[in-house]
Write a structure and sequence with these properties.
This protein has 205 residues and is mostly helical. The chain is built from 9 helices and no strands. Helix 2 runs antiparallel to helix 3, helix 2 packs antiparallel against helix 6 and helix 5 runs antiparallel to helix 9. It starts with a helix and ends with a helix.
Length: 205
């Protein structure tokens, strides 16, 4: 591929990553627990995207998009994960009556990684997106290194964007402390939005 094709691929993937959705909410929620959690979630999401990118580059994503059963299983698993995360956020214990400023509810590094990866891996629509996108760039004559490079590019663009999101959240938290009551309300809003996205996904299945 020429330079223009690489730039076009990177630009389209960047626009796709910037589209608001469950991935953004998951990274924001992880970043609210700390910079490490946010970056870990962002990188794990990029890894999940990389799997679909590699499958698509080698034509294997057709197995997912052409199998209604497998596609639906992944969709239902993704919806179930969003409902679970939303319920966990809504059922978090309310803070006490003290007005002191504290950190938002803590989320472990492992959980941040699992959620970042899971929200990408259990979203088979990514396979549909890459199948349509890569059809404009992939050919049978392309070298293995080119196909792997395409997969690395799109997953890297995705991970970099969500790392920027995590850094932005961290910077905003450094400038302004959030009371524990406001932090709890933010977690509840995340929970409602995640369950709402799950409901939309279920209705579309």
């Amino acid at each position: 591929m020429d330079l223009l094709s690489w730039l076009s691929l990177a630009g389209i993937c960047a626009l796709g990553a910037m589209s608001p959705g469950p991935s953004l909410l998951i990274v924001l929620r992880s970043a609210s627990s700390g910079l490490q959690q946010g970056l870990a979630s962002a990188l794990a999401h990029g890894a999940g995207v990389a799997i679909y990118a590699i499958l698509t580059a080698f034509g294997l994503a057709v197995l997912i998009t052409s199998s209604p059963l497998l596609f639906n299983i992944l969709q239902w698993a993704g919806a179930a994960m969003l409902v679970y995360l939303g319920w966990k956020a809504l059922s978090a214990p309310a803070p006490g009556t003290s007005t002191a400023t504290v950190q938002p509810p803590h989320q472990s590094l492992k959980r941040s990684i699992a959620q970042g990866f899971g929200v990408a891996f259990f979203n088979p629509k990514i396979a549909v997106f890459f199948t349509a996108l890569f059809s404009q760039f992939v050919s049978e004559q392309q070298a293995l290194s080119t196909k792997l490079g395409m997969a690395a590019l799109v997953s890297g663009v995705d991970a970099i964007w969500y790392c920027i999101v995590a850094l932005a959240v961290h910077a905003s938290r450094k400038r302004q402390l959030v009371s524990k009551h406001i932090g709890h309300r933010i977690q509840q809003v995340f929970g409602i939005l995640l369950i709402g996205l799950a409901a939309r996904l279920i209705l579309s299945i």
